[in-house]
Design brief:
With 105 residues, this protein is mostly helical. It is 20% helix and 6% strand. The chain has a two-stranded antiparallel ribbon. The longest helix has 12 residues, at 91-102.
C-alpha cells in the first residue's frame, strides 16, 4: 500500500507509521521491550546484567512536597446488598441509584 500522491508530495507519506498489513511477511513490529539476555541451546535463558533496565530514584524524593492522586489512608468500601439476589450486579439496583442521584429524565 502506498500513500496517495498529494500526501507523498508533502512528505507525510514517509512519516506515517507502518502496520503489519502494509509490508511484506518479514516485518514484525514488536512491543519495544527489547531483550535482557539470550536463549541457550538447552532451553534456558541467560540474563545479561548490562541489558537489564535499572531505574535511579532521584535524591530528596522522600521530602518531595507533591503527593500521589490516591490517598493511602482510604479503607476499602463494602457494599450493602441485602434483599437483592444478584448482589452488586443487579441492573435494577443500578437504575434505582441513578434515578435517586440524578433525577428522572
Amino acid at each position: 500500500m502506498r500513500p496517495t500522491a498529494p500526501l507523498f508530495k508533502r512528505r507525510i507519506g514517509r512519516r506515517l507509521t507502518l502496520t503489519t498489513k502494509q509490508v511484506n511477511g518479514g516485518f514484525y513490529k514488536g512491543t519495544g521491550s527489547g531483550s535482557m539476555g539470550w536463549h541457550t541451546k538447552h532451553g534456558g535463558y541467560v540474563i545479561d546484567p548490562k541489558k537489564v533496565r535499572t531505574y535511579v530514584v532521584p535524591e530528596g524524593l522522600k521530602d518531595f512536597k507533591l503527593t500521589p492522586f490516591v490517598t493511602k489512608n482510604m479503607e476499602p468500601l463494602r457494599g450493602n446488598f441485602e434483599g437483592d439476589p444478584k448482589g452488586g450486579l443487579s441492573g435494577e439496583r443500578y437504575l434505582e441509584k441513578w434515578k435517586r442521584e440524578n433525577g428522572m429524565d
